[in-house]
Design goal:
Blueprint lengths: L28 E8 L6 E2 L7 E3 L4 H10 L4 E7 L16 H12 L3 E6 L27 H17 L4 E4 L6 H11 L8 E6 L6 H6 L20 H12 L4 E5 L5 H10 L4 E5 L1 H12 L5 H15 L3 E4 L2 H9 L5
Parallel strand pairs: 1-3, 1-4, 1-10, 4-5, 5-6, 7-8, 8-9, 9-10
Antiparallel strand pairs: 2-3
Helix pairs in contact: 3-4, 6-7
Bound molecules: ligand PBG.
The site of ligand PBG has 12 residues, from helix 5.
């Protein structure tokens, strides 16, 4: 062999950290939290070990638990007291998210991002208002433009209740533009939008749909979420959201779509987020339970690979646990 070429020289303990190309920090992480208007006690989410739905009264305490690990940002999901055809509790002044936001902003210094979608709020579980035909023909689904009006209202309502950033996740065309206009019109110009710009129709959302009670009652989300095989389309989606005024672009899920994270990174100057979704979390837990994988190491390696792919921020159910591992000095 050519003995001048020895990459292993840079792998010894002392030099390895000096030449490491990617790193993880609690500052990169956003912890999803679930607030549930239907419960007075914390309810464990079975398919997402360590996660719970917490009552409105207990949400500030839950957020403080996250902050104690060094993670400062949370993504808030709500389970409303009741659901209806239009998802009206999503923009209600006394809605679950609005009440939770007031408590969190009164009682903590956390940075709160709200998920904006209707699937938790509609009785049919779709991410917007249904087209008339949808009731007879499940191949029809959500009425894009009618849903945009509700997105506007909900964005204003969340921002007024104290959301620091809003993350629309319904994959409606034009959602970022209408939100930006509405927020600006109401003088909420300082509230950034993190768009779920590139969201695939993925089977990895299964455990979340149990957690947030948002599985579609019929059909699926193919009419609005992306085809898992499409790569060029991701760039098109990302660019549309840039034009409409998005501040951060998200790719979701994360692990099965790291190529797309890289593509989006290379095609925009905006910060790129990726969502390490419920199924990615559940699968590591399930394997670790059987003794087949080391949970902590595979969690850190997963998140590091998202950074390597080009993500600046990571939404992950591992946020608290990985932040604790990092402060205990554990690295790759
Ligand atoms: C709402 C929403 C979903 C997730 C985040 N926001 C569910 C879905 O689109 O079905 C999934 C998150 C996860 O799986 O962790 N639209």
């Amino acid at each position: 062999m050519d003995i001048t070429k020895r990459p292993r020289r840079l792998r010894s303990d002392g030099v390895r950290p000096l030449v490491s190309e990617s790193s993880l920090s609690p500052a990169d992480l956003i912890a999803p939290v679930f607030v549930d208007a239907t419960t007075e006690e914390r309810v464990p989410i079975e398919s997402m070990p360590g996660h719970e739905r917490v009552p409105v009264e207990g949400i500030a305490e839950r957020v403080e638990e996250v902050r104690e690990t060094g993670v400062e940002a949370v993504m808030l999901f709500g389970i409303p007291e009741e659901k209806d055809e239009r998802g009206t509790r999503a923009w209600a002044d006394e809605g679950v998210i609005q009440r939770a936001l007031r408590r969190i902003t009164d009682e903590t210094d956390a940075y709160v991002i709200t998920d904006l979608c209707f699937c938790e709020y509609t009785d049919h579980g779709h991410c917007g208002i249904l087209e008339e035909e949808a009731k007879e023909d499940p191949r029809q689904t959500v009425d894009n433009d009618a849903t945009l009006e509700l997105i506007e209202r909900t964005a204003i309502s969340q921002a007024e209740a104290g959301a620091d950033m809003i993350a629309p996740s319904g994959m409606m065309d034009g959602m970022v533009g209408v939100m930006r206009d509405a927020l600006d019109r109401e003088n909420l110009t300082e509230v950034p939008i993190m768009s779920y710009a590139v969201k695939y129709e993925s089977a990895f959302y299964g455990p979340f749909r149990d957690a947030a009670d948002g599985a579609p009652a019929f059909g699926d989300r193919r009419h609005y979420q992306m085809d898992p095989g499409n790569r060029r389309e991701a760039i098109r989606e990302a660019k549309l959201d840039v034009e409409q005024g998005a501040d951060v672009l998200m790719v979701k899920p994360a692990l099965p779509y790291l190529d797309v994270v890289r593509d989006v990174r290379e095609n925009t100057d905006l910060p790129v987020a990726t969502y390490n979704v419920s199924g990615e979390y559940a699968m590591l837990h399930a394997a670790a339970d059987r003794g087949w994988l080391d949970l902590e190491e595979t969690a850190r390696e997963s998140l590091l690979s998202m950074k390597r792919a080009g993500a600046d921020l990571i939404l992950t159910y591992f946020a608290e646990s990985v932040a604790e591992q990092l402060s205990a000095g554990r690295r790759m």
